[in-house]
Specification:
By secondary structure, the chain is an all-alpha fold. It has helices spanning 7-24, 28-55, 60-81, 87-120. The model has no long low-confidence stretch (mean pLDDT 88).
């Protein structure tokens, strides 16, 4: 399966495209701390989903991916609480993150079923 055809990959990719212009509006000192951490977290999520899909790596990658997603949620919340982003932007970003979490859980179930089928054969 090509990772670029995965809905989960595409949603994370789209979120990166949406978050980047938001980060540019952060105060300069926060762009290179909070903003950079948000982008690093999103890029790591892409890397993890590619690894899961291409290499069929252990389930621990799903845990790492989930940790990064929850870390991103906290960073977005911090951005809102510091007033770097508007409430409407916060709500939209959080909705997208929740959608990614749901897709991840579905992908994980499918992945686990495929792994069980391989073992059973």
């Amino acid at each position: 399966m090509d990772h670029e055809k995965l809905v989960l990959f595409q949603k994370i990719y789209d979120l990166i495209l949406e978050v980047h212009p938001v980060i540019i509006t952060f105060p300069k000192n926060q762009r290179f701390t909070l903003g950079q951490e948000m982008e690093r977290s999103l890029i790591l999520m892409l890397e993890l989903i590619i690894n899961v899909n291409i290499r069929k790596v252990p389930a621990s990658y799903f845990t790492k991916l989930e940790v990064e997603i929850h870390k991103l949620r906290i960073l977005i919340r911090l951005s809102k609480d510091y007033h770097f982003i508007k409430i409407t932007t916060y709500v939209e970003l959080q909705k997208k993150v929740v959608e990614i979490i749901k897709l991840l859980r579905g992908f994980q179930k499918t992945f686990n079923l495929l792994q069980r089928d391989k073992v059973a054969q």
